[in-house]
Design brief:
By secondary structure, the protein is mainly α. The chain contains six helices and three strands; from the N terminus they run αβββααααα. Strand 2 and strand 3 form a beta hairpin. The radius of gyration is 18 Å and the shape is globular. 19% of the residues are buried.
C-alpha cells in the first residue's frame, strides 16, 4: 500500500470511528438511565485502537477491533457498550468504587481487592442489564463465548507448568 493510500485508510478509519462513537453515545444515553433521571450521564464514547474497554463513570472506551469479521466486531462492540453503560453507568456506585481504589493506593488494602470486586461487579451488572435489555444479554453471551473459545485455543495442549510457570 502506498503512503497516500495508507494515510487515506487511517483517515477513513478515524472518520468511521467518530461516526460510530456518536451513534453509540445516543444509545448509551438511553441505556445508562440518564434520560430517565437515574444512572450516570455519559459524556463521551471513545473507540479505542489500543483495545481499552472500560468506563470511569463518565467516559466509555470501546475497543476498535474485537473480531476480523466486521459484523461480529460490531456486535461485540455493542456488547461492551451495553456492559459499560447499561451495566456500570446504570448500577455501579462509583463513589464506593473510588474508595476501594483509594484504599489500595494508600497501601491499606490488597491490590487483589480491586480484581475480586471487579469480577463480582461485572457479573452483577451483566445480570441486571440482561434483565433490562434482553438483546444486550444475548450479545454479551455471544461475545463471552468468542473470548472463551479464543482462550481455549490459546492454551490448548499446554501443560499446567506452561500456563502457570513457577
Amino acid at each position: 500500500m502506498t503512503t497516500s493510500a495508507t494515510l487515506q485508510s487511517k483517515v477513513n478509519k478515524a472518520f468511521l470511528n467518530r461516526v460510530k462513537a456518536r451513534k453509540f453515545l445516543s444509545i448509551a444515553r438511553v441505556m445508562s438511565g440518564e434520560l430517565q433521571g437515574f444512572g450516570a450521564s455519559v459524556s463521551k464514547i471513545s473507540i479505542d485502537p489500543a483495545g481499552k474497554a472500560c468506563t470511569d463513570g463518565k467516559q466509555v472506551w470501546i475497543p476498535e477491533h474485537l473480531h476480523d469479521n466486521e459484523s461480529y466486531n460490531r456486535i461485540m462492540q455493542e456488547a461492551v457498550l451495553a456492559h459499560e453503560v447499561a451495566g456500570h453507568l446504570r448500577y455501579t456506585d462509583f463513589g464506593a468504587w473510588k474508595k476501594i481504589g483509594d484504599e489500595i493506593k494508600r497501601g491499606h488494602a490488597d491490590r487483589m481487592l480491586h480484581d475480586f470486586t471487579n469480577i463480582l461487579e461485572d457479573a452483577r451488572v451483566n445480570h441486571l442489564l440482561s434483565q433490562d435489555f434482553g438483546g444486550s444479554g444475548k450479545r454479551l453471551l455471544a461475545t463471552q463465548r468468542i473470548f472463551m473459545q479464543r482462550h481455549r485455543d490459546a492454551w490448548a495442549g499446554k501443560t499446567v507448568d506452561e500456563i502457570n510457570p513457577r
